[in-house]
Design goal:
By secondary structure, the protein is of the alpha/beta class. The protein has two domains: 3-19 and 272-358, Aspartate Aminotransferase, domain 1 (Alpha-Beta Complex), CATH 3.90.1150; 32-269, Aspartate Aminotransferase, domain 2 (3-Layer(aba) Sandwich), CATH 3.40.640.10. 37% of the residues lie in helices and 14% in strands. Helix 3 (83-93) packs parallel to helix 4. The two termini are 37 Å apart.
């Protein structure tokens, strides 16, 4: 598929300028049909042994697809329910203790902050927040982990490249990364990368991924164990964890959700990841420039797909834009609206947003 043909695959774009993939991406029609097909099969055939084999098959296919989007080996990729799920597993698995420090940025999402708060409250770890560009330089003798966004959800800033040089594990929140910008976990030098299936990969809610390097995998404790992440689940209490990243798999995913996610990611893959990334970032840069020309202050950003800009009353303006068919979000605690620009958007979406802001 040509990247320009993507637009026709998303029903919501027929009526709205949908610029909210940073929250939830638009669902492709084919993904909806894939989910419906699995539910119809379950209704007609029942959920027997064949059904569970089908779930296993779909999980394997989705793992491979997600690994392709991450530039990772499928053996190093776990299936999770969301970005937060993968980050929480990683932080808890380090078994930090009092005196250990985690360095993070001052613009992190609650999905990471919740796990950091748990490490502080339950383990006694200290959390050090610094501006995003300074997270690598902030690593000190007590630092046991750097945990921050690959792409900042508020501004669209990228994590500093100097993180490849730090000598402690690096966990990246990839909710605004995978599917939106090029991701190569090896080139990023991260030890863990948690991503979302429902945002820039346009899948359903309830799907995510976690890359864990083999080196870090050996260090992480896995307290959450069940049928899905055990290699010999019928061995009773002596059952062993999978030796690869499947040990971090969430304990249950429905066939319909996985089929939906798989169809969506395969659609984007068919358009070519490079083309998808280049088109989205180009459109976002164009929008940022046009907003600035119209007197809207644009938040500092890198070459990403997020464009945050000033608003006198961001929540009220978001609701007004929604009434005019433009879907964006406001950033809590900051006077910003945020447009998330995907390869499925086009100039008509940007023009609709700009004209709606002007009136």
């Amino acid at each position: 598929m040509d990247v320009l043909g993507l637009r026709a695959e998303f029903p919501v774009l027929r009526t709205r300028a949908y610029l909210n993939a940073g929250t939830d991406g638009p669902l492709p029609d084919g993904a909806v049909q894939a989910a419906a097909g699995e539910l119809e099969r379950e209704a007609a055939d029942g959920r027997t042994f064949a059904h569970f084999e089908r779930r296993k098959e779909l999980n394997g296919q989705l793992r491979v697809a997600y690994a392709g989007a991450l530039g990772a080996d499928p053996d190093d990729v776990a299936l999770t329910t969301c970005t937060s799920d993968g980050m929480a597993q990683t932080i808890a698995g380090l078994a930090l203790s009092e005196g250990d420090e985690i360095v993070t940025s001052d613009e992190e999402h609650p999905g990471l902050l919740g796990a950091l708060g748990a490490a502080r409250e339950l383990r006694g770890a200290s959390i050090r927040e610094v501006p995003m560009p300074d997270v690598a330089a902030a690593v000190g003798p007590r630092t046991r982990l750097v945990a921050c966004s690959h792409v900042g959800w508020m501004s669209g800033l990228l994590a500093p490249s100097e993180l490849t040089q730090v000598d402690v594990p690096v966990l990246l929140d990839g909710a605004q990364g995978v599917g939106a910008v090029p991701v190569d976990v090896r080139a990023l030098g991260c030890d863990a990368y948690a991503g979302a299936g429902q945002k820039w990969l346009c899948g359903p809610d309830g799907l995510g991924m976690l890359y864990v390097s083999p080196e870090l995998s050996e260090r992480l404790e896995v307290s959450r164990r069940g049928y899905a992440n055990l290699q010999d689940p019928n061995s009773g209490i002596d059952a062993r964890l999978h030796e690869d990243a499947r040990r971090f798999d969430t304990l249950s995913l429905s066939a319909e959700a996985v089929a939906c996610a798989l169809s969506a990611v395969e659609l984007l893959e068919s358009a070519g990841w490079q083309a998808v990334h280049e088109r989205a970032r180009s459109l976002a840069a164009g929008l940022a420039g046009q907003l600035a020309e119209r007197g809207r202050e644009v938040a500092p950003r890198d070459d990403t797909t997020l464009v945050s800009f000033a608003s006198d009353d961001a929540e009220a303006e978001r609701e007004l834009l929604a009434e005019r068919g433009c879907v964006v979000r406001n950033i809590p605690g900051r006077p910003w609206l945020r447009a998330s620009v995907g390869a499925w958007n086009d100039e008509s979406d940007l023009d609709r947003l700009l004209s709606s802001l002007a009136t």
